[in-house]
Amino acid sequence: MADYLVSLTIWAALYSLFALGLNLQWGFAGLINFGHVAFMTLGAYTTALLTLQGVPIILAVFCGMIIAACLGLLIGMSTLRLREDYLAIVTIGMSELIRLFVLNEEEITKGAFGVQRYPLPFNINPNPISKITFIIVFTIVAIYALWQLWKSLKKEWLSSQEIKGKSYKPRSQKSILIWGIIAALVIIVLYLNGIISLANYGYKDGLMVFILVILALVYGALEFLSHSPWGRILKAIREDDTVPLALGKNVFWYKLQAFMLGGAIAGLAGSFFAWQLTTIYPTNFEPILTFTAWIIVILGGSGSNAGTLLGAIIYWTYDSLTRFALPLLPFFKSDSQLGSFRIMVIGLILMILMRSRPQGILGKKEELTLGR
C-alpha cells in the first residue's frame, strides 16, 4: 500500500504538471487544445532516446521541452490566426499524427516495441544524510502545498461573499469548504506515507520528491506570470482579443507564446511520464490523456493554477478509491463494466459541478470562458 500511495502521488503531480500547461493555453489565453498529449509524447520520447545515447538527463529534458515548444510554434503559426475550432481540429489531428509516427517508425522510436532500459533519475542507493535531505525537501514542498491551498480557498471564500455587495452564498461556500478539507486530508496522508517510504528509499521515492519540487517551481513561475502584465494581457485576449488589439498589443504573438510555453510544460510532464513508466510504448499516448487533463482543469477551475492542482488531487483520489471500492460491489461482472461505470460517474460529477459551479471549484465566474 505504501508503494501504491507513492505511485499515486507521482501520478497526481504528473497530471498536475500536464494540466498546468493546458490551463495556461485554455484558462488564460482561451486556446482550445484537444491534442495536448502530442507535447507529452515528444517530451517523453526525446528524453528517453537522448539519455540512451549518453546525453545528461537534465539536458535531455530541456531538449524535450524545446522540441515540444517547437511543435507549438508549428501549430500556432498555421492556425492561431484562424477561428478557435480550426485550432481544436488541427491539434487533435497532430496528436494522432505523432502517435502514429512513433508507432510505425522503427529505426528511431522502435515502433510498437517501445523504448526500454533508458537511464532513470535518482536511481541510487542513498546514504543516511541523503535520505534526511530528501525528507527535508519533501516536508518543505508539503508545507508549501498546504499554504497555497489555504490561500486559494480563503481567497475564493471571501470572493463568494462579495457578489453584489454582501449577499452570501452558503451553498457555494459549503462546497469550497468540503473540497478544501478533502484535498488537505489527501495531502497530509500522502505526506505521512511519503516520509515512511523515504526512510526505506526506493527509486520511485526519489522520483516523487523530484517531480514535486519541479511542480512547485512551475506552479510558482506560472503564478508570477499570471499576475504580471503578460498574464493580464492573456486574460484580456481570452475575453475579447479585439480590445488588446486596439490598444496596440500583438495578439498573435501573445497567443503563440502561451501555446509554446504550455507545450513546453507538457513536454516536461512527458519526461516524468517516461520515468514513471520506465518503458514507453505508443499506446501509452492515447487521446484519453488529453481529456483527462481537460477534466482536471474544468473540475478545479479554468484560469486558476491552484484549481488545477486541486482538480488533479480530487481526480486521482476518486480514481484510487473507486479502483479498490467498486470491485467489492456485486453489481459488476467484468472489468469492462467497472471501467465504464467509473467513467460514467466522472461524467455525472462534472454535470453536477457545471450546474452548481460552472466556473469549477476555484475558478472565477466573472472570468468564465464558456457560456457567456
TrEMBL record:
It comes from the Bacteria. GO terms for cellular component: plasma membrane. InterPro entries: ABC_transp_permease, LivM-like. Keywords: Cell membrane, Membrane, Transmembrane, Transmembrane helix. One of its GO terms (molecular function) is branched-chain amino acid transmembrane transporter activity. CDD domains: TM_PBP1_LivM_like. The chain crosses the membrane at residues 6-24, 31-51, 57-74, 86-103, 129-147, 176-201, 207-225, 258-281, 293-318, 339-356. It is found in: Cell membrane. It is a multi-pass membrane protein. PANTHER family: HIGH-AFFINITY BRANCHED-CHAIN AMINO ACID TRANSPORT PROTEIN BRAE (PTHR30482:SF10), HIGH-AFFINITY BRANCHED-CHAIN AMINO ACID TRANSPORT SYSTEM PERMEASE (PTHR30482). This is Branched-chain amino acid ABC transporter permease. It comes from Aphanothece hegewaldii CCALA 016.
